[in-house]
Structure formats: C-alpha cells, structure tokens
Amino acid sequence: MLNLISDEVRFPEALERGRTVTRYFTTYPYRVYQATTAIQGIDYGFSDDEGPFFRTTIQTTAEIVSPYRVKVTIVFGHRSREFDKRTDANVNYSLFIQQVYSP
C-alpha cells in the first residue's frame, strides 16, 4: 500500500543561516518498507564567485528509523555575503510511504 502524507513546515522570520525542522511519523500497524519526500532539494542564487548576492537552500530527507516510524528532516537556509535580510519560509512537501499491514 502506498500512503501519501502532505505536510507544511513553517520557518519563522530570523537572521539565522540554516535552520532544521525534524518531524516523526508513526505508522503502526503498517510496516514501512520505503519512504521518500517529494521535494528532495532546491538550492538557488548566486555563488560567491559571481558576486555578493544571495543563496537559498531547501532540502528534505526521509529516513526509516524503525519498522513503524519515519523521520523527515527539512532544512531551510538563506545567506548573503554583504547584507543580512530577515527571511521566513513555508515549505510544502509530500511524504510517500510504501507500507504493508503487519500487526
């Protein structure tokens, strides 16, 4: 059975560089065989070689931590070389879980 979970993570406004949110999903009585997220990563902006502009990174990962539990990690970061700008973000992602009933 394929289970699809849509979720949204909110990163409040801050000047920090990279911020991480971790979520856990419990699937009992369904045993997890495979898990993945729909946004695997976005990294855009100008490099340091191209100039003192911005760079933004969004990454998601899914990890099976036990037969009935999945850990999702979402990273958001915004950086610049010559200025600091308060940033916030809403990251929408989907978690796909391949599972089977196994009480």
Secondary-structure element pattern, one letter each = EEEEEEE
Rounded mean pLDDT is: 83
CATH architecture: Sandwich
> Largest sheet, described in full?
4 strands, antiparallel
Strand content: over 45%
> Cα distance, first to last residue?
15 Å
Q: CATH topology, anyone?
A: Immunoglobulin-like
Helix content: under 10%
What's the level 1 CATH class? Mainly Beta
Structural class: mainly beta
Shape: elongated
How many E-type strands? 7
How would you classify the quaternary structure? Answer: single chain
- Order of strands across the biggest sheet? 2-6-5-4
Query: How many distinct folded domains?
Result: 1
Figure out the total of helices.
Answer: 0
Cα-atom radius of gyration? 17 Å
Q: Poorly predicted ranges (pLDDT <50, ≥5 residues)?
A: none
Walkthrough of the structure:
The chain is mostly beta strands. The chain has a single domain (2-101), classed as Immunoglobulin-like, CATH 2.60.40. The chain contains no helices and 7 strands. It has strands spanning 2-14, 18-26, 30-37, 42-45, 54-66, 69-80, 87-101. The chain has a 4-stranded antiparallel β-sheet, with no helix packed on it. Strands 1-7-3 form a 3-stranded antiparallel β-sheet, with no helix packed on it. The radius of gyration is 17 Å and the shape is elongated. The model has no long low-confidence stretch (mean pLDDT 83).
